[in-house]
Write a structure and sequence with these properties.
The protein has 355 residues and is an alpha+beta fold. It is built from 14 helices and seven strands. The radius of gyration is 26 Å and the shape is globular.
Length: 355
């Protein structure tokens, strides 16, 4: 059976579970977990295929969504510029020149010198030509910034809303999973972390800043994703859950990140005692591997979503990979709040003390 291009794209971009597309599948076929392939007397079912292709399809759905949003925003921006230019009685080129090109200032001399030194090996040998390339690059950067600022203003004035549904995954939150924030918070931020990963340590201030930027609106869920090249990460993840058993998870979590280069079993036990835990109970929990299976379940879950590196996040089921800048998280959180009809806090309202 052959399917048209748009049929395939629609199925991939809109289906929440990683399922293959078919034209008008019957309810009976879905309920019976249909066979999608045979070899000899063996069969592969739809559910088996989902398990095999799930991670790659999560990434593919993300790529399709981002491409569609980018195209929508570019088209809307072009139309708004056209309308704004017409309203001012100028051409689109003249409008862009007034709003962008003419506002580009002279590049900072110190930055030019710094970049010439930093990228000298990639630049032309002639200093004049090298400088010219650096200046052009800085001017282009400023044009892109000014264009982005203009787009933001025009979008706000026009009340632009994009209703394309982002791809999401469903995550299980077992009893006893470390978390903080209100249970009914509109934003559920799931973090998959490796305690020996430097990027995971680097993103911690971003998470703290987000909870301050959106007071009372984020429920932060912590899960483990120790990587094989970090020898203490698995043990650290298990030990953190032993600390959770004694109500000291976040204190121990902070200690692990502060000591990620030197931590080992002995230092973890000593830290647990210093933090007021029952040392004997903590040691028994660690040595008996009480939470080994739980850490491995977190790892399997993360990989099923296509998260194989750390840190990895889910924001209301939307996958965010890597130690992204805070602006990336803010963009998604703002979208999620808007989708729920919740006013997005400004920096001023977020910083204002509660009455």
């Amino acid at each position: 059976m052959k399917f048209g291009f748009w049929t395939i794209i629609t199925c991939v971009s809109l289906t929440v579970a990683a399922v293959a597309c078919a034209q008008e599948p019957s309810t009976e076929a879905i309920a019976q977990d249909p066979v999608v392939a045979k070899y000899g007397d063996q069969e592969i079912t739809q559910s088996e295929l989902e398990g095999l292709t799930g991670p790659s399809l999560v990434a593919l759905r993300q790529q399709i969504y981002k491409a569609q949003v980018a195209q929508l925003e570019a088209e809307i921006y072009a139309r708004l510029v056209r309308d704004a230019a017409a309203a001012e009685g100028v051409t689109e080129a003249e409008y862009r020149r007034m709003k962008i090109d003419e506002l580009v200032g002279e590049p900072d001399e110190g930055e030019i010198v710094k970049l010439m030194s930093q990228f000298r090996a990639r630049l032309p040998e002639d200093d004049v030509e090298a400088r010219k390339q650096i200046v052009m690059a800085l001017e282009q950067r400023d044009k892109q910034r000014l264009s982005a600022e203009l787009q933001k203003v025009l979008f706000a004035e026009a009340g632009v809303k994009i209703f394309l549904s982002p791809p999401r995954v469903e995550v299980a939150i077992a009893e006893g999973t470390p978390e903080r924030g209100a249970k009914d918070a509109p934003i559920v931020l799931v973090e998959y972390t490796d305690y020996q990963c430097p990027f995971c340590k680097r993103v911690q201030p971003t998470i703290t800043a987000l909870t301050e930027r959106y007071p009372g609106q984020i429920r932060h869920i912590f899960k483990n994703l120790p990587l094989p090249n970090h020898p203490q990460a698995q043990l650290a993840g298990e030990a953190s859950l032993c600390a959770q058993d004694q109500g000291k998870f976040w204190e121990f979590h902070d200690w692990l990140f502060a000591n990620q280069r030197t931590m080992n079993r002995e230092s973890m036990v000593a830290a647990a005692v210093e933090l007021g835990m029952d040392g004997e109970a903590f040691t028994t929990c660690v040595d008996e591997g009480t939470h080994t299976a739980r850490v491995r379940a977190d790892m399997t879950e993360a990989r099923s979503f296509g998260i194989t590196g750390t840190p990895g996040f889910l924001v209301n089921g939307r996958v965010v990979s890597g130690a992204q800048p805070i602006e990336e998280f803010e963009k998604i959180i703002d979208e999620e709040l808007s989708l729920r009809g919740i006013e997005v806090p400004t920096e001023e309202t977020a910083a204002a003390p509660a009455n």
